[in-house]
Write a structure and sequence with these properties.
With 364 residues, this protein is an alpha/beta fold. Helix content is 28%, strand content 30%. Helix 2 (47-55) runs parallel beside helix 3 (80-90) and helix 6 (141-153) runs antiparallel to helix 7.
């Protein structure tokens, strides 16, 4: 397969539009037209992982964390990032990162973490803002169903657990065409009043060009009247973190032991016990201190995340059990999920799970 074909498959798993603005996701090294013989999936694309890809005849490395995060002014091999990139380029190995594009997906990192902990009735903890746009257009009744269905096909009209959502209202449209016009109804220089259907649909902002293309392709008017709006509504199925419930409430000690076993933690740093049962649990894989307030507001009994600083443990305010389980540990099953997804989608060559442990934190 060509690399661009695999990229399309990866973007179905983790659309790049879902990623945070600060992130560096997508194709980091390589040519989109390269032919791929094998894929190695890892957590971090370190030099040892590139060596592993070479030995296993994989010329695409799909990583969770981007090895290139900020800009490089020189590539001389002086640090672990530059050494990995040099080795990948020398051996014609492409590198593709998913990171927050998968963090923000409702079936991504935090759903994987929730499933590992046995959480039920899960939902996004911090829904993504400023991600929804709205299209308003007008057409004749005879064209309304065809046009509306084309917009749905392009990705419009999805709201939460529902699809093909729209609002339609009838009204009166007017126009008068000049000498260069070719009106669908009426003649040039004729003032026309006709019944029109107003169609309103919402869509994820990265689909705008596709939605507008479908609008123009399926509209019968010579001049298409339409309006686009950016909405401040949050997107309930895209965002960071997740909150759910344990099947049965547990004591804090039993809960921490449960987390330690399921996530294979070398240790757990936690805030002072609240002496309450743990039932409602918020999670955020990776560095999640910014979500402590959201976990409190959501009524969580415990919040599982990583990279908490000393003073941030105070933010629990005796109302919440904060548990820092380690950055790598909170994301440890992500690469397995990516492998399973790619093996289901791509069956004509090897998709390999990296055997390298790239966790930089060791426990004594």
């Amino acid at each position: 397969m060509k690399l661009f074909e695999i990229i399309a498959t990866l973007e179905e798993l983790a659309p790049l539009a879902y990623a945070e603005d600060f992130d560096n996701v997508g194709l980091l090294v390589g040519n989109r037209n390269e032919t791929i013989q094998g894929i190695l999936v890892c957590h971090d694309a370190l030099e040892a992982v590139i060596d592993e890809a070479i030995s296993k005849k994989c010329n695409l490395v799909v990583c969770f964390h981007p090895i290139l995060f900020s800009g490089l002014k020189k590539i001389t091999g002086k640090n672990y990032v530059e050494r990995a990139v040099i080795k990948a380029i020398k051996n014609d190995i492409a590198i593709y990162a998913v990171h927050t594009a998968l963090d923000n997906h409702q079936l991504g990192v935090n759903k994987i973490l929730s499933n590992a902990l046995g959480l039920e009735n899960t939902k996004i903890l911090i829904p993504k803002e400023n991600f929804i746009k709205k299209l308003v257009t007008y057409t004749i009744p005879e064209n309304a169903i065809t046009l509306r269905n084309a917009l749905f096909e392009a990705g419009a009209g999805k709201i939460g657990n529902y699809e093909d959502c729209s609002f339609n209202s009838a009204g009166t449209g007017t126009y008068l065409g000049n000498e260069n016009s070719n009106p669908e109804i009426g003649e040039r220089f004729e003032f026309v009043e006709s019944t029109e259907i107003k169609i309103e649909v919402t869509f994820e902002k990265h689909l705008e060009s596709k939605i507008v293309a479908a609008l123009f392709k399926n509209h019968v008017y010579e001049e298409v009247a339409y309006e686009l709006y950016s909405l401040t509504n949050t997107h309930q199925n895209i965002g960071l973190g997740m909150i759910g419930e344990l099947t049965e409430a547990q004591s804090e000690i039993d809960f921490l032991q449960h987390v330690k076993e399921k996530m294979q933690c070398g240790g757990i740093r936690h805030s002072a016990f609240t002496h309450k049962k743990i039932k409602k649990v918020a999670v955020l894989g990776g560095s999640g201190s910014f979500a402590i307030k959201a976990a409190l507001q959501a009524g969580a009994d415990a919040f599982i995340t990583a990279d908490l600083k000393y003073h941030q443990f105070y933010e629990a305010e005796g109302k919440l059990l904060l548990a820092d389980i380690g950055h790598f540990e909170s994301e440890r099953y992500t690469k397995n999920y990516i492998v399973d997804y790619l093996k289901e989608k791509i069956t004509n060559f090897a998709v390999v799970l990296s055997e390298e442990n790239t966790n930089p934190v060791q426990y004594f």
